[in-house]
Amino acid sequence: MNTKVKTRTWIALLNLLFLFTAINAQPVRQHLHEGWNFRQARGTNWYEATVPGTVHTDLMDNKLIDDPFYRLNERGVQWVDKEDWIYRTTFDVTPELLAKKNIVLHFEGLDTYADVTLNGKKILSADNMFCEWQVDVRSLLKEHGNELQVYLHSPIKIAMPKWEAVPFQYRSSNDQSENGGLLNRKIGVFVRKAGYHFGWDWGPRLVTSGIWRTVSLEAWDEARINDVFYNQQSVTAQRAIVDVTVEVLADKETEAKVAVINRTDKRTECRKLIRLNKGLNKIPVSFTMKKPRLWWTNGLGEPFLYDFVATLELNGKQVDVTEKKLGIRSLKVVTAPDEYGESFYFELNGKPLFAKGANYIPCDNFLTRVTDSIYEKTIRDAVSANMNMLRVWGGGVYEKDIFYDLCDKYGILIWQDFMFACSVFPAEGELLENIRREAIDNVRRLRNHSCIALWCGNNECLDAWFNWNWKKTYDKQNPAYSDIIWKQFKNQYFVTLPAVVEEFHPGACYRKSSPYSDDKGTRNHTVGDMHYWAVWQGLKPLSEFNHERSRFFSEYGFQSFPEFESIKRYAPLSEDWNLTSEVMMSHQRGGTAANKRINDFLLSEYRQPKDFRSFTYMSQLLQADAMKMAMEAHRRDMPYCMGSLVWQHNDCWPVASWSSRDYYGRWKAQHYFTVKSFADLLVSPIEKENTLQIYMVSDRLKSTSGKLTVCVLRLDGNGVVKEFKKQITVPANTSTVIWKEAVDGLLNGEKKEDVVVHVLYEDKTGKKYTNNYFLAKQKDMHYAAARINKDFVPTEGGYEVTLSCDVFARGVFLSLQGDIDNFISDNYMDILPGETVTVKVTTELPSLQFAERLQVVSFSDAVEQ
User: What is the pLDDT of residue 24?
Assistant: First the structure.
């Protein structure tokens, strides 16, 4: 071997040795998810358990309880939350991990009251579902046969004495204590766990316990990176200034280097030599990026993410690395006096943003059943409906990291509530400190996500206090009680939570409550955000959605049933298929009158459905029309109104509710309608004082031009009554009336009930935006019997179905009997006379079965003639 070859060989060996040393210096993580068993604490039989998991899902897996979502089974599992449960596992530790100087046991989530022992020694007591728990276990571990036990206390047994010790009741409007056999003891406010587990007006009462998030051993030697915070101080298209705080946990005083590397642009943004002290070190560094690629929301541009890495070096060795995908953006909430009152809108990268989206609740009562693919579909469905914001509502959970990662990836902003909703809480002493710790954990965990747009103290708690007569009730009972609760309220939402946001997410917006106009709970339509429920709860006609105004609608909604094929999964017996059956009433938590309310609205606005299957279809069309009306009204009112977040995006179990997607992920009619209602351009007709006005609403950041066509068509297919064409320019980022005409002139002697107004806008690129407008109520429209022709051809992943009809076919609905795993690209659509419409049906059914199971119905098929 010559000298040069020897030299190259030694260099290669030294590089390998350095790489091995560097890898060996890195922290080590060992998940503890295998070999778990559980038992009832007062029982003796052990059963296999899944971790992460819940007691309920483990009981189901072992055939000890039936699925609580099926028919009336929820009632039979109410005993589970009254019991204590024990989980245990035995594990070995790798020599590599055991050799580390520091080892902690890390529970990312314990639900909720848990005592943890390791090798017979108690190491931890947990009391908050939303907190993470870490404990040093280095001295207790051995290489083989470690025994880990988690004793889960009944949240009911822990909370009941607290409820009984208070001389008054803390109000909690949705706690279904009666369903849990607790009479009026609404104890959920004493427990820091997901409020909806105690029941809600769309969800069951299933109070879970369990090791619900990852549990692992984490080991390192002299130092590790504890956290990295990227604080975007100033961002424009020309430059971004980012202040970074690198938290390092060190065993001793030593010198170290920290660096922030921009992998996307392949450069080191900053590097710093520092002196570490023993304990926690906060190391500030900063860098400036020239002409950064900005992160935009869905519809406005690319949600571009940079790949950043923070590194820690000791003695020339890299001992820790943390990675983060970061969207560089400027995001503000603008609240400033204006000619109407006070503005309330989000400004992204210097541009006013109209927030289009929905309220999000957890995807399941049993959170560990929510897979990554369910999260992916849930967020992608929001993207597909042209949403740019979801509101993570305050009675659920601070979601898993993957939820926010997906929102970063797809450009969905998050209005993040703290986990308090529709209740008053005993927020003092230990509980207030518990709340503060919970807030710190979650603000720190989520603050780097580009999608986080706003932190909000609670959902409807302030409104409930002043406008649901809660304060008056306490004042009547005893004014001292009212004073106690209000003091606790202010300490919680006016002091503690904003202080956490200010300290740990400086520059982020904090709102004390939603809805919120001022600290007195004033319902002011010219200031702040509004929850509008006067139609559904107040029984006002649907037309009120056209008249109600707010600066930002953060909640509004209307109920419907799931699709009939979904209903058959949880209620397969024909005896269940009527509005007042015990099963249908149980799978409706909006009150005993809610199912009747849907039917009453149907009779007022539509017609009597001919059977239960038709009722489910009609309820969805009604919901879709109502929410289309609201969404378009909100967007037409731009820039006075700058936000429209419908209640709600999803369901946590199979139920009749306000959701636009049912529990199984099926799109309801509302979700299909939202695609057009939230498009980047909206062409929106509205009749005002016998004049038809057509608005063009644009979210585009540049003006556009194109051709507008307004066509009045006879429903029976006998031709066009009138047609208008016009070249128009649509201004950027606003709402404008671009055409108007007297209704009498449009009708040309025809009746309102005999025609539909079809509006088409085609921009200069050829992209088309359409809308249909009816000049009379649906129940008065003269729809002819629609004989819909259908043809289909196989295509990749399913079939293309082409539909046509000789008359106007309203709300054409395609479904596949008995096949839940399908998707239809467009549905509940209107077909114009002589028009052909082609949709893609994604399914694995073979052609013969597809032809047999494909059903197509329209409005005229579903009503009594």
Answer: 54
pLDDT at position 751 over 50: yes
Largest CA distance in the chain: 102
Q: Report cis status (omega within 30 of 0) of the bond before 236.
A: no
Nearest to 649 by CA among 361, 355, 297, 365: 361
For 95-141, what is each residue's pLDDT tens digit? 999 999 999 999 999 999 999 999 999 999 999 999 999 999 999 99
pTM, rounded to two decimals: 0.95
**What residue has token string 């299957």?**
613
**Tokens (6 digits) for 499:** 């202080």
- Give the closest residue to 154 by CA, choosing from 210, 101, 104: 210
Q: Is the dihedral of CA 642, 646, 647, 648 positive or negative?
A: negative
Q: How many CB atoms lie within 10 A of CB 316?
A: 9
Please, what sign has the CA dihedral across residues 381, 382, 385, 391? positive
Identify the weakest region by mean pLDDT among 1-10, 677-686, 707-716: 1-10
CA distances from 699 to 236, 414, 638 (A): 20, 19, 10
Pairing of strands 355-360, 389-392: parallel
Helix, strand, coil percentages in the chain from 3-state DSSP, rounded to 5? 25, 35, 40
Annotate 79-88 with b (16+ C-beta within 10 A) or e (fewer). ebbebbbbbb
Query: Up-side HSE of residue 632: CA atoms within 13 Å toward CB?
Result: 28
Q: Taking residues 509-523, report their average pLDDT.
A: 97
| CA 618 – CA 598 distance, rounded (Å) | 10
